[in-house]
Amino acid sequence: MSPSLPVVALLLVSHSRALAEATEALLRQVTGDSVRIAVAAGAGEGGEELGTDATRIAATLSQLAPHAVLVLLDLGSAVLSAQMALEFLPQEDRQRVALCPAPFVEGAMAGALAAQAGLSLPEVAREAQNALRGKQNDLPGADSDAVRESVMRVDVGMERRCYELSDPAGLHLRPAAELVRVAGEAGMDFWVGRSAVATPLVAGKSLSGLLALELRQGEALCVYSNEALAPDLLTRLDGLFGNPAEALPEVRPQGVVPGFALGLVADARLRLEDLLPVAEAATPDGAERLRRAITVVASRAQEEDILGAQRALLVDPRLQEKLDAEFRRGQGPAHAWAGAVEELAQEIEQLHEPLLRARAADWRDLGRQVLGELLGDPERRTVAEARPSILLVDDLLPSMAANMDPAQVLGVIDRQGAPNSHAAILLRGAGIPYVINVRAPELRAGIEVAMDGATGAVIVAPQKAQVDAIRARYTRSETLALPEEFAGELALADGSHVEFWANVASPAEAQEARRLGARGIGLLRTEFLYLDRWQSPNEEEQMQHVQKILAPMSGRRCVVRLLDAGADKPLPFLRLRREENPALGLRGIRALLACPDFLQIHIRAILRAGHGQDIALMAPMVSQVQEIIELRRVLASCHSALLEQQIDHAWPVALGIMAEVPAMLLEPGSFRGLVDFVSVGTNDLTQYVFAADRGDERLQNLGGAGSSAVLGLIQGLLQGLDVPVSVCGEAAGNPQLALGLVEHGIRRLSMSPRSFAGVWQALRVA
């Protein structure tokens, strides 16, 4: 390589060869020949056709070796083609290539100048991605309004037509441009998005918005309108995308927290803009007033367990950037805050990962809290109804859920929501029935509804027979009560005893477990401290979080599960790369061992929290002996370091594992002498045994935790080990499934404390 050339080269990937070559000429005028610049643009033999070619991109990347290469891309399928091109390269060559999301021309210019200066590939990429900052500062009026105005959300009663995209490139430039042309000639407004309830919609006339949706092959492209879609428009859409995907499953109501509720609806769907003053002047002290309001909310969040995870969002540097832009536009503090928060929430809603998309609610929640403080009405962030009601919400917020009194809030009906959201966790702990994805247009304040939080049924103006049918199911379980002498176990006819342990994730659940007489905590879930965190909580914060949950169970054994990260619980601060199949990827103990610095802090925090308590540690998703050997080494290292630092901590501690990977259950004998106990996670175990996503309702007929395949593995586990074996999955709290587990030899069940009575009754009468 010539010593005069910088180490970073640029590759321009465009649908248009003319555009790429013109951009290269522009760069040459500034950098001369001091930067290696290559073009891989157009489709067809000579690149004269509009499109991109993965083979051409891969060949050009090979020619640029051994340079590090920053790839600038224009629109749509250029990204897909570049990603495909990387797959053609040897692994060592992929590591020297970075695909850059920067704007094509501005990013190329900034990247070329950075490469000319001799910066590294990450530094060149960062300069390219910041290329728009100058233009945004110079043109504050165009800062974000255009984007904000082009995005909306699905409203109840909208007409919809969906198509399954068959093109391997998804919604790329050519069909998107044709859709824009159709929109311009339609004589009516329509919006485009995915089929989910909470999907963001973009105007059909917005090419950039359509491409930003990143709709891929196999996904549903849905056209929405507030009026009936005209026949001629439908004909053109059918011609563009083929026959409508009539078979696409509709989003159905989903029960999240079981329970029966009957009452009048109270509409709690308060939007950020509903809190804003009609007129607000931009004053010199506006930014300082907003800062003080943010500080108050941040200090309040720090004191609350799950809500504490939101505190990290308040110090997000991107939030400050957007606030600065709003103030430059002349906005007052309330309008500036609402605008910045809504923009960030909409960005989150466009992510592919459902768990992360659900975090948009946290942004809006913080928005309401800060506005309440800023405008002198902090209590407006909470829900307070004059009489017991069933609340109707749009994406329930954690702070609302945290302040709900079960005596006042009989149930919650959510038009959006997510089963794994913070709000769902809080309602589950409070025992408030919760149903999500309810789009019935007839739901409104003041009407009577009956709801079943288990099945997801919501009945407007129910008949007595319908109410009686739902109520009967819950009346049977509610009449069940534990005997006063219940001490966490039940004697069986054969002389053995079944122990009742509790699954908890919060101090409130631990208090309930103690009140009901649980033998101990069989599963303390630690992951809820970490959701939404872009930076890892420090050792002190982790210790305090676990300590609060352990306190109510003082004197009783508490099994603390190490952070179960990955799959449906992606944690950004662990820097785990996106996986095609996360359920089979780097999760559980694999993820922890891949992040040794975090693992040491995590274990130290738990050991410190357990000082003076009877705790045990449990590793999730263990599949082979080597993982436990390595974990024991790390555990011993943490103990030695704490001893040397003279820091109080629990020791010795038992170490167990979750049995949820079939490989572990098929060879239990290999773990003898390495583990002190085993707990079966029936949720994941069932999923892996049947190779079926447990969240996919189409696969529910394949079998469950009560199948002979799963029970056979559990029985083999009992025979292959000489240590205590428990079950802590959902099956343990299901009366019928628990009965089957006990019949197959299980004598320790760990479940939600609210399930004790039903399981106790089923076992007692068996």
TrEMBL record:
Keywords: Kinase, Magnesium, Metal-binding, Signal, Transferase. The keyword DNA damage does not apply. GO terms for biological process: phosphoenolpyruvate-dependent sugar phosphotransferase system. It catalyses: dihydroxyacetone + phosphoenolpyruvate = dihydroxyacetone phosphate + pyruvate. One of its GO terms (cellular component) is membrane. Its cofactor is Mg(2+). It is an enzyme of class 2 (transferase). Residues 7-139 form the PTS EIIA type-4 domain. It comes from the Bacteria. One of its GO terms (molecular function) is phosphoenolpyruvate-glycerone phosphotransferase activity. InterPro entries: DhaM_N, HPr-like, HPr-like_sf, PEP-util_enz_mobile_dom, PEP-utilizing_PTS_enzyme, PEP_util_C, PEP_util_CS, Phosphohistidine_dom_sf. Homodimer. The dihydroxyacetone kinase complex is composed of a homodimer of DhaM, a homodimer of DhaK and the subunit DhaL. Belongs to the PEP-utilizing enzyme family. Component of the dihydroxyacetone kinase complex, which is responsible for the phosphoenolpyruvate (PEP)-dependent phosphorylation of dihydroxyacetone. DhaM serves as the phosphoryl donor. Is phosphorylated by phosphoenolpyruvate in an EI- and HPr-dependent reaction, and a phosphorelay system on histidine residues finally leads to phosphoryl transfer to DhaL and dihydroxyacetone. This is phosphoenolpyruvate--glycerone phosphotransferase. It comes from Igneacidithiobacillus copahuensis. The lineage of its organism: Bacteria, Pseudomonadati, Pseudomonadota, Acidithiobacillia, Acidithiobacillales.
